[in-house]
Amino acid sequence: MAHTRWLDDEEQRTWRAFLTAQRLLFERVERQLQNEARMPHGYYEILVRLSEAPDRTLRMSRLADTSLSSRSRLSHAVARLEEAGWVERTACETDRRGAWARLTDAGLAALQAAAPGHVETVRSLLFDALTPAQAAALRDVSETLVAHLTDRPVWPAGDDTGCPTPTQAEEEACPEAG
């Protein structure tokens, strides 16, 4: 049986502070988006990822991977966004299992309407409480943890993370995706 590496007092304090801060922050961010934009944070994140992608379009599988979401959960979320007219999903002729998600003009408008309140909430709850040095340290710690916890790129969803943009053959087969 392996030896348990118990947390010392400082580690326990750090862990509990991290958990509490994360829960409080995300609960308030979620509440702001629900109250002001009528959308959960997960939907907002999908809209942001699509808005930053070439032609506002990503493969559904890539969107799931970069969102750290299961494909079925993402598919459900995209279906709800389709109902709202914010996202269009199209099949890809070159890959019968593949599909594209594209941010519509209405989706971009919804994102643009939600963004100011969301950004102000993030600024007031997170960045206003930190010095520039603390913000840099938070970014460093967060990037270190992301690198430790996953070997796949998660943000942003564009080309710099290796996200495949439609090839010419894919664009010809799925012109609405390109």
UniProtKB/TrEMBL annotation:
Q: Which residues form the HTH marR-type domain?
A: 11-147
Write down what this protein is called.
MarR family transcriptional regulator
**Lineage start:** Bacteria, Bacillati, Actinomycetota, Actinomycetes, Pseudonocardiales
Compositional bias, Acidic residues, is annotated for: 169-178
Its source organism is Pseudonocardia yuanmonensis
Please name the InterPro entries in this protein's record: HTH_MarR-typ (IPR000835), MarR/SlyA-like (IPR039422), WH-like_DNA-bd_sf (IPR036388), WH_DNA-bd_sf (IPR036390)
Coiled-coil region(s): none
| Stored SUPFAM superfamilies | Winged helix' DNA-binding domain
**According to the UniProt record, where is the region Disordered?**
157-178
